[in-house]
Amino acid sequence: MDRNSIIGLVLITLLIFAWLMYSSVNQAPPPSRNATDSTLTEQVAKGDDITPVAQPKDSAAKALSYGAFTQFAEGNETIYTVETELYTAQISSKGAALKSWALKNYKKWDQQPVQLIRRGQGELFLNFVTLDAKKIDSRNLNFSLNRADTYYKVEKGKPLSLDFEIDLGKGRKIVKSIKFYADQYHVDKHIIVQNMEDVLPSRGYNLVLEKGLLPQEYNSVDEASSADALVQMNGEVEEVDASKDEGIEKSFTGLVDFAAIKTKYFTAAVIPQPWQKFDGTIDIAGERKHHKNNGITEIYSMGFRVPYKGGTQENSFKVFIGPLDYDIVKQYGLNATINLGWRFLIRPIGEYFMLPIFRFIHNFVPNYGIVILIFAFIIKILLHPLSITQMKSAQKMQLLAPEMEKIRKKFKDDQQAQQKETMKLYSEYGINPAGGCLPLLLQMP
């Protein structure tokens, strides 16, 4: 590397370091809540687009709507709060559905704690059609709980299990058991259907996440571009991207590893336990919504179709709701939720070369901006021999420019002869015309 190149590299590095230091000290405060920027998404974050599930008002209408489940459509909703080291969750007695999931260690654009569940009637609920053609949304049914308290603090090493139940009598039950851990972003969800042959058809029920995850970024357009849903079956990943206004619906049938919905930095994934025994169908739907001031969000829904084979049947799922942190999601086999580029070329380089180096440097340097600079400098050093070759090749080609011009004039009407003589000239002076591209290709990942 010549003297001018070294001076230039040092000056650029000093300039970027100075800018990073200036930015960290003079960071602008988050925008105010009454901002009118075209990408403001607060009205979406509040869940203002959610329509509550309609319920019949009088008893006769409820009987027509719910059949054998009529008595459970009565009564007020009770909210149960579960607090762990990592999040605070709220579960409704209506459907034993998840009403809130607030992460403690992350903040959204306005510095409020990250809230991933939309305000509304709850998520991860059941719906099904009974044998007498009643369409049941479990969020309209009051489940009883095996505990009396409404607030629970989960201690490390002492998981908490909440068993929500609908008892139709004569041994007929639906039980949703949810197990919480103090230091994990997942819950274990066990759904037990017992002796429901006279109520539930063989097509069973659906486990549904209906309205995806709340956006967290101030720039809704940028976040929407990173949002999608994916299903992994037998190790093969299928993505669903609602990037067009007409929306998208897809179904996937087979041995399901997991299904997930993700935004830019967070994901919600449902993982059958064990996945080898869940041979079923996943329904994924996505829609693209436009909001005032040119804001955009993409909303995804997913549902697991769980057939019912009669008698007592238990289906277990691990439900992960948390950050897209590679070290965390890898524990659950959710590596595919992290976008590391083309699966068969770029991703292995990113996963097994770049990420380990980044993590190693980050152990000593907490600022990721500086980590990127150091990493770029390391790559520059590793590619230095190739850069020297590239530079020498460029200098030789510059010296041969007059000879190449003579060849072009001599064979101006014969492109094949012109190319042949040019390659002969390159060979004579030891020039590799593709040599300059190699360092660029190696830097692409």
Report on this structure:
The protein has 445 residues and is an alpha+beta fold. The chain contains eleven helices and 19 strands. It has helices at 3-25, 42-45, 59-66, 220-226, 326-329, 346-362, 368-382, 384-399, 401-410, 415-428, 437-443; strands spanning 79-83, 87-92, 98-107, 113-115, 125-129, 135-137, 144-145, 151-153, 160-169, 172-180, 186-194, 205-209, 228-233, 236-240, 248-262, 266-273, 279-291, 295-306, 312-323. The strands form two sheets. Strands 5, 6, 7, 9, 10, 11, 12, 13, 14, 15, 16, 17, 18 and 19 form a 14-stranded antiparallel beta sheet that branches. β9 and β10 (172-180) form a beta hairpin. The longest helix is centred in the N-terminal third of the chain and has 23 residues, at 3-25. The protein is elongated. Mean pLDDT is 82; it is low at 24-53.
Give start-end ranges of low-pLDDT stretches: 24-53
Oligomer: single chain
The description of the largest β-sheet is: 14 strands, antiparallel
SS summary, helix count: 11
Beta-strand percentage?
A: 25-35%
Backbone shape = elongated
Output mean pLDDT.
Answer: 82
Helix/strand/pairing class, anyone?
alpha+beta
> Got a strand count?
19
Please tell me how large the radius of gyration is.
29 Å
Element-by-element helix/strand order: HHHEEEEEEEEEEEEHEEEEEEEHHHHHHH
Distance between the termini: 23 Å
The amount of helix comes to 25-40%
